[in-house]
Design brief:
Blueprint: H1 13-16, H2 28-34, H3 38-43, E1 45-49, E2 54-60, E3 65-72, E4 75-76, E5 79-80, E6 86-94, E7 97-106, E8 115-117, H4 120-124, E9 127-132, E10 135-139, E11 143-149, E12 165-168, E13 176-177, E14 190-191, E15 194-196, E16 205-212, E17 227-231, E18 235-239, E19 272-280, E20 283-284, E21 290-292, E22 294-300, E23 303-311, E24 331-335, E25 341-349
Parallel strand pairs: 4-5
Antiparallel strand pairs: 1-2, 1-11, 2-3, 3-6, 6-7, 7-8, 7-9, 9-10, 10-11, 12-25, 13-15, 14-25, 15-24, 16-19, 16-25, 17-18, 17-24, 19-22, 20-21, 22-23
Length: 351
């Protein structure tokens, strides 16, 4: 049987459409047990055309439908950046193949609209993807082999260095305030929501954590495995299944209404991902007046997504930046109606 695992992207429309709440899978075993979305889960993922130096992300949008993004020079954070071109298309899995209809190219150009919308003739030239003899192919009139890749963060499983404080490694939940729900799906993990006890006030620190997004093929936008990491309980670094999306400030690794990531480094759902934060808290004088913004550097899956960026103020939903004398704050792992999982959390002060 031939199957296509191939070429289609995220549509910007997914950001604007009303959320569709669908089934939430928190482990691969649950996907297999359900059965209905096994093909969608197996087709979804990242692919590389080494011959033509292209990367592809295939995103499930239901049982048989997909969006596909093709990237010039490789995958996001591994060759592609925002200065390079992308292909966007829709995919449908039928008759053992993924049939992809192109919608547009995004070609960054100064002073011009970057989107080049395909005409009817261009849309008629559909692509077909197949899986034959253990290999994946695109048919561009000539079959080209592509390779499925499963990237892992270089900091995945990184143990706390000397002098660091382990906040959660699965052995206990002492570093948390209030009730914590331990995951029954992933080893040494907890469910959001959870609140870490306050850190030492005003000290710069490095914070490492790992998270797993749920697979929600029928959900879109902010309904697709939503959580958030509130640094100092003030600044939310978004956690969302943003695989294949634009990389906006309300998507994974974005800070709401302030900062979008340099590149969208989000991996597919049900993959362990990492955040590595370097945080310098905002500074206030004796009168409670701010004299310096908070500064953050963030790596998402080992890829630099914020580089010494300033946070001008708290993000929506966070506590106010101006704190009472002596008040210290920790980190809030937001619950947003979805079952995001966290593990391997540690902090190291840097002063």
């Amino acid at each position: 049987m031939k199957k296509f695992f191939g070429f289609a992207a995220l549509a910007v429309a997914a950001l604007c459409s009303a959320p569709l709440f669908g089934q939430e899978f928190t482990s691969v075993d649950d996907v297999k047990a359900d059965g209905k979305y096994v093909d969608a889960f197996q087709i979804q993922g990242e692919y590389v055309d080494e011959t033509n130096h292209r990367g592809y992300q295939v995103i499930a949008r239901g049982e048989k439908d997909f969006v596909v993004v093709g990237y010039q020079d490789g995958l996001p954070g591994d060759g592609w950046d925002r200065s390079k071109a992308r292909f966007f298309g829709k995919g449908e899995f039928k008759d053992g193949q993924l049939v992809v209809t192109g919608e547009k190219m995004n070609i960054p150009r100064k002073g011009e609209d970057a989107d080049v919308i395909f005409n009817d003739a261009q849309k008629a030239r559909v692509l077909h993807g197949t899986f034959e003899d253990g290999k994946y192919y695109f048919d561009f009139g000539k079959k080209v082999e592509i390779k499925r890749v499963e990237r892992k963060s270089p900091t995945l499983g990184e143990k706390a260095p000397e002098g660091a404080i382990v906040l959660f490694d699965g052995s206990n939940t002492d570093a948390f305030d209030g009730k914590v729900n331990v995951s029954d799906k992933q080893e040494n993990a907890i469910w959001s929501e959870a609140r870490l006890k306050p850190f030492e006030k005003d000290r710069p620190y490095t914070l490492h954590m790992e998270f797993m997004l749920s697979f929600m093929p029928n959900a879109t936008g902010q309904a697709r495995s939503n959580s958030g990491v509130y640094l100092q309980e003030e600044y939310e670094c978004q956690v969302l299944d943003s695989f294949g999306l634009e990389g906006e400030n309300n998507e994974c690794a974005g800070f709401y209404q302030q900062l979008k990531p340099i590149v969208n480094a989000c991996f597919p759902p049900l993959t362990w991902q990492t955040y590595d934060f370097d945080v310098t808290p905002a500074k206030f004088n004796d009168k409670g007046e701010k004299i310096a913004n908070a500064v953050i550097t963030v790596k998402h899956n080992g890829i630099l997504v914020h580089d010494k960026a300033e946070l001008a103020h708290e993000t929506p939903g966070g506590k106010t930046e101006k704190t009472e004398a002596g008040e210290a704050r920790g980190v809030f792992l937001q619950g947003h109606g979805n079952k995001v999982q966290y593990r391997n959390i540690w902090i190291k002060y840097n002063d």
